[in-house]
């Protein structure tokens, strides 16, 4: 049986709320969710806190309760890359349930963030006790795999301008907030993070953002991009 942490009552409520926000566990039975809560830990982190650096084999699943988390790393040339950004309700690092596997990425907190930590082994024990739930995990993994393949195809066929527009369009769909009476979408993203996501320099990203501004598609400011024409942005991404 997985070791139970018996979190404090206020933590239990926050953990339960975060897990119910997560599409994977949104409709799981209450008794199953109780088992997950029993092995979970709640942690609060300050902006720019790195997690799991140098812990390539750590088996732990994360659920974002609030704030934002980046999956990133440094390549062989010492260049920073960002694989993805995750907000409230998103479950991260399911692949870390695998044993005897090392990973080249780690996590960096983008702002004040609260995370639910689920030990990989304990989470797998819960799933094994309720085998039908593995289907939910498989469907989520397949959805993410499909998106990764589609993104790779778009980037293989497109140019830098397409890549920047594509990254903005995808991030807006997940993390964007409606502003100006619903006529625009605001996205918190730095040019450095955007550059790391599409593997180009900040100068190149700045140039492409200026082009999109001249087209009237977006308005770029420090740490934020406001999208005024999402359909035009999708067209700039290549469809």
- Give the total of beta strands: 12
CATH topology of the largest domain: Jelly Rolls
Q: How would you name the CATH homologous superfamily of the largest domain?
A: Jelly Rolls
Shape: globular
Helical residue percent band = 40-55%
Helix-strand pattern, N to C? HHEEEEEEEEHHHEEHHEEH
Rg result: 19 Å
Q: Any idea how many domains?
A: 2
Mean pLDDT across every amino acid position: 89
- What is the highest CATH level, the class of the largest domain? Mainly Beta
Output the structural class: alpha+beta
List low-confidence stretches.
1-6
Largest sheet: 4 strands, antiparallel
Strand content: 15-25%
Notes on the protein architecture:
InterPro entries: cNMP-bd_dom, cNMP-bd_dom_sf, Env_Response_Regulators, HTH_CRP, RmlC-like_jellyroll, WH-like_DNA-bd_sf, WH_DNA-bd_sf. Pfam families: cNMP_binding, HTH_Crp_2. This is DNA-binding transcriptional dual regulator Crp. Residues 158-231 form the HTH crp-type domain. 42% of the residues lie in helices and 23% in strands. The relative contact order is 0.13. Helix 1 packs across helix 2 (30-39), helix 5 (160-175) crosses helix 7 (202-214) and helix 6 packs across helix 7. It has two domains: 7-154, Sandwich (Jelly Rolls), CATH 2.60.120.10; 161-237, Orthogonal Bundle (Arc Repressor Mutant, subunit A). It is built from eight helices and twelve strands. With 239 residues, it is an alpha+beta fold.
Which features does this protein show?
single chain, Jelly Rolls, 12 strands, 239 residues, DNA-binding transcription factor activity, 4-stranded antiparallel β-sheet, alpha+beta, disordered N terminus, Arc Repressor Mutant, subunit A, 2 domains, HTH_CRP, transcription regulation, DNA-binding transcriptional dual regulator Crp, globular
């Amino acid at each position: 049986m997985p070791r139970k942490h018996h979190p404090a009552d206020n933590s239990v409520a926050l953990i339960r709320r975060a897990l119910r926000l997560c599409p994977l566990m949104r409709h799981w039975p209450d008794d199953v969710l109780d088992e997950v809560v029993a092995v979970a830990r709640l942690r609060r982190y300050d902006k720019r806190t790195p997690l799991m650096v140098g812990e390539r084999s750590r088996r732990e699943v994360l659920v974002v309760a609030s704030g934002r988390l980046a999956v990133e790393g440094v390549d062989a040339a010492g260049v920073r890359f960002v694989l993805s950004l995750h907000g409230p309700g998103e479950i991260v690092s399911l692949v870390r349930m695998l044993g005897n596997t090392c990973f080249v990425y780690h996590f960096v907190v983008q702002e004040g963030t609260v995370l639910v930590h689920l030990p990989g082994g304990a989470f797998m024990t819960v799933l094994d006790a309720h085998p039908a739930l593995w289907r939910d995990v498989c469907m989520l993994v397949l959805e993410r795999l499909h998106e990764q393949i589609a993104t790779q195809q778009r980037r293989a066929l497109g140019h830098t301008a397409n890549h920047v527009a594509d990254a903005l369009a995808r991030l807006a769909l997940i993390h964007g907030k409606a502003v100006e009476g619903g006529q625009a979408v605001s996205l918190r993203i730095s040019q450095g993070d955007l550059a790391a996501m599409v593997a180009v320099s900040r100068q190149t990203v700045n140039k492409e953002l200026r082009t999109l501004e001249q087209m009237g598609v977006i308005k770029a400011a420090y740490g934020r991009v406001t999208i005024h024409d999402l359909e035009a942005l999708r067209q700039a991404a290549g469809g």
